[in-house]
Design a protein that fits this description.
Layout (H helix, E strand, L loop, with lengths): L2 H10 L6 E5 L14 E14 L2 E5 L4 E4 L6 E15 L1
Antiparallel strand pairs: 1-5, 2-3, 2-4, 2-5
Protein name: Cupin type-2 domain-containing protein
Length: 88
C-alpha cells in the first residue's frame, strides 16, 4: 500500500488525521492501552506490535489495526521505525 492509498482508505473509513511517530532504533515502549482504535501505516524501518497474541513485525508499506483498550507495546527494529497512526 502507498501512503496515498492509506490516506484514501483512512478517509473512506472515517479515521482521524494521521500523526507521524518516530521510534528510535531498537526501542520498545512500556505496555499500554489507547481509548481509541488505531490504524497504522509503516513509512520506514521495522515496526513490531506486541500484544498478548504475540509479536507481529510490519515493514514499509504494510498496515495494521489495533482495537481500543488492547494492551500492547510498540517496538522498532535496529534502524528504528516511522509510522503514521490514525485513530477513531
Amino acid at each position: 500500500m502507498s501512503p496515498d492509498e492509506f490516506d484514501r482508505l483512512r478517509r473512506a473509513e472515517g479515521w482521524g488525521e494521521p500523526r507521524r511517530v518516530r521510534f528510535e532504533a531498537s526501542s520498545r515502549s512500556p505496555p499500554h492501552v489507547h481509548d481509541q482504535a488505531s490504524f497504522v501505516y509503516v513509512l520506514d524501518g521495522a515496526f513490531v506490535l506486541n500484544t498478548s497474541d504475540g509479536a507481529t513485525r510490519y515493514r514499509p508499506g504494510e498496515t495494521c489495526m489495533l482495537d481500543a483498550h488492547v494492551e500492547h507495546a510498540e517496538e522498532a527494529g535496529p534502524d528504528g521505525a516511522t509510522i503514521l497512526v490514525a485513530r477513531k
